[in-house]
Queue: 2 jobs
Job 1
Amino acid sequence: MTAAHSSGEPPEHLRFARYVAALETVPEDEEAHLVTKVLRDTDTRMATSAVVRHLDRRAAALLTGERFVDWVRVMAGLTSEHPFLQLRLDDWARLRTVVLDQVWAAEELSTASDWLQRSIVNTTAVVPPEALRLLAARGRTRRVRAAARTRLSCVVTHDRGPGTNGAGPSVFE
């Protein structure tokens, strides 16, 4: 059992809160140093949790931007000894591939992690209808299949025809 701090919180909970707060406000040029420092904590599980929160927040912010690829490369180097963090970075890279409508394989999406499949159907970014159709039919969970069908019905409802890029005649015209 871990000794509790005077506040009643175990020390690892307090460190976790400090790490999360520091990672939320770290300047870009100090990010790598701080991630490395957090990952050196003796409580690997807690450190990994703090870093994955950071990776998720930063990756979401950078997802469609030019800096994403370089950032993932740096973070992958820093997390190379942490399989879960590597998997999460790989999933973010796959999500970016789908969102940017780059080349992706149906097998890759249908066998992707639950996290990635949920992220694809829940992202605020535009997702190609082909990816949504695939997940509606072959998503790993009922939750993913249902969310993909719901989102796909919204896409179909808002698409006003081929070649219009969704900007066809308005219902008000």
Job 2
Amino acid sequence: MLTRTVLAASAAALLVSATGVAAAASTDIRPAHPAAAPAAALKPCAESALTLKAAASGQDHVLRLSVKNHSSRACLVDRVPLVTYGDLDGAAVPFPLSGSSTYKLDAGKTAHAVVRSLSASGDSDVRSVGYVVVATNPEHDGKKFTAASLSEPGGLRVWMPVTTLWQTTTARADEALAESDGAGILQV
């Protein structure tokens, strides 16, 4: 392999010029120490190892979400909680926008998010549903929360819902939601 030999010779020449020590060029390049075996990859959290909660926040049309890992090992949830309203199509849009990624949830730890279901605009396309489903992975069934259990006995009003990513504290989740504009549309 001519390219490999030229690269090895170039590296040796660079080493000689930098250190003043002659080094033998070799076409067989090997690391001085074998690479360490990669750490065991984290696995998705089992749905049975998680406790999901949703509660009214005290703000109009905003719910607080939390997920706790009850297993003895760290595991992964999707970076964005999957929040769907009744039998309506689609899910809450993440803020800030994020691609597909995961969130590491350490053993015994809790992550927090907030979701705003409705803007303050009074849009005529507002729908009302009897429940919301929250999941940490699209492959999970998620947990269903009724409107009555969320202090909305008349139904949850929804139009263009927005959710934060999972955060380490409720304060961080609140800050993330506050960065979106109050009209229910994401700032980009």
